[in-house]
């Protein structure tokens, strides 16, 4: 009898434990190793299934006896244990690669530097509303592997970060969406933009003429690659600036979608998601929906009643005529650009936190045009002061969500907007961007 193959899983979060559940179901010997502490809920899940695991260490002897290693997307290739696995010649794959082997579900895969969670949730909403037997996985929802192990979906909508794409080899997206590419996470890519771009384009690998690639015609980095490479998949561009024959474009306050002789149009003012970047997200989702032959009346309804994900341009309250918006998920400069671009009023902007090497120059024109005051929320706000002191008259330092909200409330006037859109990570004052957003919302509701 053939010896049982051994799978080692590094990282015991949602992705790792989901992989362990699937590996056990497929008959592998399974061992889970996490260099940090494992959350109780995941320990309980592993224990209940009799899956061996360790925490706060990596036992090399155990790990290097694997036939294959599934790596959590959060573990960098520079980690010592990863180097040892590579030296030993053991194959390292992602959870997405592993789960893809055991499902026949049609996959709709979304990546991009910004907007991927929103677009993923929107496509899931459209499909669910149209009656599809559909799962939601990847960077959102339960892990892909867990859903393959425990559910039987016909379609799965997957949000894929560049880290998840990096260890995918045979996996194929039936419909791939590439929304945009702007500098982010460059510390993981040797500070080379091309490495990051190549990572994003892995979403197109293994696609055939039966598959579809939906991409932004207005994105410079995407179009450089599109001009250089040939693609097997059918191509469906979307654009705010140019008319396209097949794909989607915006003109005269209307989005127009054309696929396989199927046409769809909708007034931009009727879309649930507002702002130029969200028109792009809606067009990309609309193309995917039409390729899946979703009826126009159902699509129109879904694009009109979708509620955005928490902490992403989330309307919190209107108090004394002042709108409060929580965009705590905006942890890079590009996300803030999209947020400010979508504002139609004067803005009191709450920004700051742990700087990720930000270059604020792309915001200068928007800030001059729309921002009346900046409320800094972080331990070290010098970089924000230096960048904007000659663009905005008022810049105030605060050290808590409560203080930031109260200061912003007093600076804003009726008909204006208080926008939390930090451009930075949250770990100096908060547990996470969710914690930052939750504290902001709670304080606003106390006003």
TrEMBL record:
Catalytic activity, as annotated: UDP-N-acetyl-alpha-D-muramoyl-L-alanine + D-glutamate + ATP = UDP-N-acetyl-alpha-D-muramoyl-L-alanyl-D-glutamate + ADP + phosphate + H(+)
One Pfam match: MurD-like_N
Protein name from the UniProt record: UDP-N-acetylmuramoylalanine--D-glutamate ligase
Keywords recorded for this protein, A-Z: ATP-binding, Cell cycle, Cell division, Cell shape, Cell wall biogenesis/degradation, Cytoplasm, Ligase, Nucleotide-binding, Peptidoglycan synthesis
Binding positions for ATP per the UniProt entry: 112-118
Keyword field contains Ion transport: no
Native source organism of the sequence: Solitalea longa
Compartment annotation: Cytoplasm
Family stated for the protein in its record: Belongs to the MurCDEF family.
Known EC number: 6.3.2.9
Keyword match Cell inner membrane: no
PANTHER family linked to this entry: UDP-N-ACETYLMURAMOYLALANINE--D-GLUTAMATE LIGASE (PTHR43692)
